[in-house]
Amino acid sequence: MTGPRRFFLVAALVALGAAQFPSCSSEKSGSNTATGGSSATGGNNATGGNNATGGASARGGNSPTGGSSGSGGSAATGGTPATGGSAAKGGTTGNGGATGKGGATGNGGTIASGGGIASSGGNTGSGGSTSGQYVVAMVQSSKAQASDITQDDIKTLVGDAITKAGGLDFIKDGQTVVLKPNIVTPYADMMGMTPMAQTVNGVSTDWRVAKVVADLVRAKNPTGKILVMEGSTVPAATAFSLMGYTTANFGTSVDEFIGFEGTSCTDRTTTALVQKTAPNGTQLWVNKRYATADVVISLPTMKTHLNAGITGAVKNLAIGTTPVGQYSAPPADGGFSSGTDCTRGQTAGYIDHSTPETLGQFIHDNYSVRPADFVVMDALQGLSHGPASMWSTGGNYATDKMNMRLILAGRNAVAVDTIEALVMKCDPKQVPHLTKLEADGLGTTDTSKISVVGKQVSDVATPFTVTNQTAICPGI
Questions:
Q1: Which pLDDT band, with edges at 50, 70 and 90, does 132 fall under?
Q2: Residue 265 — φ and ψ, nearest 5°?
Q3: Tens of pLDDT along 279-313?
Q4: Where in the sequence is the domain holding 394, given as residue range(s)?
Q5: What are 55-78's pLDDT values in tens digits?
Q6: What stretches of 19-116 adopt beta strand conformation (E)?
Q7: Alpha-carbon torsion 452, 453, 458, 463, what sign?
C-alpha cells in the first residue's frame, strides 16, 4: 500500500499505539525585506512620528499629524494625554499605525496597531500599537450555523475583521505577498480515501476566506505577485485541488499555487531553498520565495492540537512552511516519507513532536526567521481533538466540529493565538511556542497588552478538548 492510503494506515496504527501523530500545517510570521509597510512603514516621512510626530510640535491635531484626519489618536490622542505624540508619538518609533496615519481609523493607538516596537510586524514581528497594545479583532456571524454562512457573508466578516485590526494599507503595489492557508489534510478519514467538504470543515482553511483576503490584497497590490503556498500531509497540488484552491475559484487574485515540498514529498534538493539562522543559532532550511516575500499573511484555523496543545497563526507557518524533504525521516529511519506522503518527521533528528516543549522549540525557531505580517483566522467552524480529529485518540470528527462562526484578525500572530486559545478555554501561558516567542519580544500572551476589538472572549468562549494536552486545554 502506497501514498495517502499507506500513510493513513500507518497513522492509524501509530494512534492506536498512543504514539504522537503529525503536526498540522501551522504557522510563521514577520517580514524579511520590506515588511509591515515595505519601504514606507507607518507612513513614510510623515509617519505619525518623525518630523511630524502626531504630537510634539503638532499635538496630534492641526494638519501635519499622525492621524488620518489630523488626529494622532481616537479623540486626537496618539499617545499620552491627547497629544498624538509625547511619550507615544503616534507610534513609538515614528510609525503611527498600519498606514502611517496614527492608525487605521486615525488612531495613534488602540485600534491603530502597527506601532509598538516596530509597526512592521516583520522586522521585530511586534505589530503592536502606540500605547503598547496589540490589537486583535474578532467578529461573529449572526447566522445560526457555520454551514449557513455564504460567500457574501464571509466577504463582510473578513473585511470587517481586517479593518478593525488596522487594515492592509501597509501592503504596497508591486510587492510579493504570500498567503499561507492551513490545509493539514484534504481527507475526512484516516485512510485518506474520502475528501472532506471544501467549506466550513473545521480542519482546513475555508477557501472562501482565503479568496476574500486575496481579493483585498490584490486591490492594494494590482501589479504585484500574490502566491498561495502550502505544505500539507499530501502533495500540495492534491490538497489545493480537493479543497477548492484553484484558478477557477481565485481567478486573477492569485498568481501561483505553490507546494513547499518541491517536486515531491521526497525532494531533498536545496536549489529552491535558503538557510536561515534562528535566534539560538539553529540553521534552518526555508523556501527562498517564502523567505524573501515582502508580506506573509497567515490564514490558520481555530483548533486544538494533540502535540502542541493549540494550533493557530504561529504554528501554521512554523510547521506548514517547512520543505518536507529536509524535515521528514525516510522509511529506513522510521519515517513515513514517500512520494505522496508529506508528513513532517516525528523524530528528534527532524521535528520532535514528543512533547509540547520539544515541538514548541522547533516552532519558535522556524517561526522566528520569518514572522507573519498579518493574520486572518478562519474560526467559522472550530475543531476539538485537532489538528484532525480522525487522527486523535478520543476524537470523533462528526461531533468535534465547533460552531463558532468567527473570524479573527491582527498584526501579531502571538497575540491572535493568545485570544484564540482563550476562546477555546485553553491557557496560552502553557503553550511553549507562544511563551518562547514572547520571551524574544515577538508578541505577548499578556491580555493586559492586547486590545480585543469587536466580540470579546467572554462573549464566545467555548471549551475545546484535546486528549493528550489537558494541562493546556482542560476542556472545561
A1: low
A2: -70, -15
A3: 999 999 999 999 999 999 999 999 999 999 999 99
A4: 3-8+24-31+170-469
A5: 333 333 333 333 333 333 333 333
A6: none
A7: negative
Query: Which three cell numbers mark 242?
Result: 480537493
End-to-end CA distance of the chain: 41
What are the cell numbers at 298? 497567515
Q: What would the pLDDT profile of 306-333 be if each residue is shown by its tens digit?
A: 999 999 999 999 999 999 999 987 766 6
Which cell numbers in the block locate residue 153?
Answer: 457573508
8 A C-beta contact, residue 231 and residue 183: no
CA dist., res. 346 & res. 21, Å (int): 8
Query: Residues 386-438: pLDDT tens digits?
Result: 999 988 888 999 999 999 999 999 999 999 999 999 999 999 999 999 999 99
> How wide is the angle at C-alpha 126 spanned by C-alphas 320 and 216, nearest 5°?
65
Max CA separation in the chain (angstroms) = 73
Asked, for residue 79, whether it belongs to a domain, the answer is no
474 is a domain residue: no
**Does some domain include residue 344?**
yes
pTM listed for this prediction:
0.76
Cα separation, 259 vs 347, in Å, equals: 23
CB 94, CB 63: distance < 8 Å: no
Amino acid type, 230: E
Q: Quick one: cell of 130? A: 502606540
In a domain, 311, yes or no: yes
Q: Please count the structural domains in the chain.
A: 1
